[in-house]
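Complex 240.
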Amino acid sequence: MRVIVCKDYNEMSEKAFEVMKDVITKNPKAVLGLATGSSPEGLYKCMVRDHEENGTSYQDITTYNLDEYVGLPKNHPESYYTFMHKNLFDHIDIKEENTHLPSGSTQEEADAYEKQWDAVTCDLQLLGIGRNGHIGFNEPGTPFAQTTHIVDLTPSTIEANSRFFDHDINKVPKQAISMGIGSILKAKKILLVASGAEKADAVKAMIEGPATESCPASALQKHDDVVVVLDQAAAAGLDR
Ligand code: F6R
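Predicted structure with fructose -6-phosphate bound:
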């Protein structure tokens, strides 16, 4: 893993953008795996700014998102569909038909998404990391070979995500449809961004701990092209 430590969230976003920009410049038809959440928002802002100022085009880019809540209508303000449109898709020239998010509540629907994913080669998979080391919605204990699946969210993830649902855990969906760790590892390159002290333990376990199902992100040690971009607070626990 290549680890880049930045002074703050903005620098982390700019560094991550450099990695992203390199991939889309080399291949304007790149397939990107995308994530939602606070971690990639700054990177998406950099992509939008670059599109507006430099005309970088996404016309031939295809995207696949990692996950979506089960049971929220597409146009719900907190759906990942809405997040992606609000933060990225509505501000660049990507074609709606080239954007993909998993949807549904059954394993058949999850398998159908994995089949679409298998039909392409992802050039860059973007990830955040949960406080418990989750990637996508792959919570601790998820087998590393797992493909797209329906997940029961853990209490810690429900609590963390309640900030988007009026801090009311009862409003947070209890399940999600998520690419698995096995799906994520199929990408050619992986870019993980993390900021803030609350991520420091998970970051340390991902990079310096053993590759174990109790820290899903530690599976990335098994991939040979991973770039991790951190701010100082998220990197604070590292032995370096
Ligand atoms: C989002 C996702 C999650 C988040 C993680 C961190 O698509 O798959 O794994 O990356 O929960 O979330 P933030 O960035 O909000 O701290």
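Strands lie at 2-6, 31-34, 62-65, 67-69, 99-100, 124-127, 149-152, 175-178, 190-194, 226-231.
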